[in-house]
Amino acid sequence: MASDDDRRVSQPQVSGHVIAPSLITEHPNKVKGTRAQPMSTTSSRTGYRGGVTAAAANHGPGPYRERLDSPRDIRAALLPEEVGEFDEAYQRALRLAAETLSLEALHSMLANWRRIARMTLVNPAGHRRMLEQAQRTMETGQPPEGAVEWNQLRAELGI
Question: Does the global pTM surpass 0.85?
Fold first, then answer.
């Protein structure tokens, strides 16, 4: 019977991660979607002559993988009650970009709101409940019903 190491070597890998067969090309030094340069050595780990590279998997848009490429797309995916906050953050980031001649704050702001938009797309009702609970907690100072203190959770998990 083959060991785990023997089975792993039978599929191409990069840093211990198996490369999807659909990304492998006929050329032993190339993976689809990359610009790998051939290497002249043989890897003892994978058994391949030359370098092995991996391309990022992009399975395209889906119900929870919307592209959200533009601020307009991100804004459209948000709950109505979040749109005003998004607009304010976007305008602040644009002003900062104009003042500093750097897009870093704008990119960071869009990345943050893109994550929120994706969570919203996956479960709009759940996201709305989370916002409502956060608002209640901020107003009352009381944790949600059934909440567990951090120390108690760590103890339960044995951390």
Answer: no
